[in-house]
Amino acid sequence: MKKKKTYIPKEKDIKRKWYIVDADGKILGRLATRVADVLRGKDKVIYTPHMDVGDGVIVINAEKVRVTGKKEEQKIYQRYSGYPGGLKEEKLSRLRERDPKRIITLAVRGMVPHNKLGRSMLKKLKVYKGANHRHTAQNPEPLEV
What is the pLDDT along the chain (145 residues), one digit of tens a residue? Predict the structure, then answer.
């Protein structure tokens, strides 16, 4: 009886593509989940948890992403400077005015591994406030969310 071996993809086996997502009218959590899956490569047959086999994702119209319920006024983003009294809090509505790209980036960041691997995956995420982007050379395909 022959032993079965676990398949580990080589770097030359990984074919990377780019996808584009229009966030206009999409729900934030559902959009972030789909984007994180593509960045990790979970939609591919060669998915391996300890390797970055995922594709690149371009998100446009980040300012028009939707949230459900009362999250617009109740969801709070926190960051801490490390100094006493250095806790900063910001509501979703204020963050949307200040930097709408950060809403999607933070949502996706929470769904990828929290280590060096996750940081390398996030480098393949490009988020834009409006409908224009500068990645036409990648020939992005539309991604269904």
Answer: 788 888 899 999 999 999 999 999 999 999 999 999 999 999 999 999 999 999 999 999 999 999 999 999 999 999 999 999 999 999 999 999 999 999 999 999 999 999 999 999 999 999 999 999 999 999 999 999 8
Q: Is 54 strand, coil or helix?
A: coil
For the question of whether the overall pTM of this predicted structure is more than 0.90, the answer is yes
CA atoms within 13 A on the CB side of 97: 6
Q: Is 60 helix (H, G, I), strand (E, B) or coil?
A: strand
Structure tokens at 32: 């972030």
Contacts of 72 (CB under 8 A, 6+ apart): 91, 92, 93, 96
Alpha-carbon distance 144 to 34, whole Å? 9
Cα(69)–Cα(99) distance, rounded to whole angstroms? Answer: 21
Domains of the chain, CATH where assigned: 16-142 (3.90.1180.10)
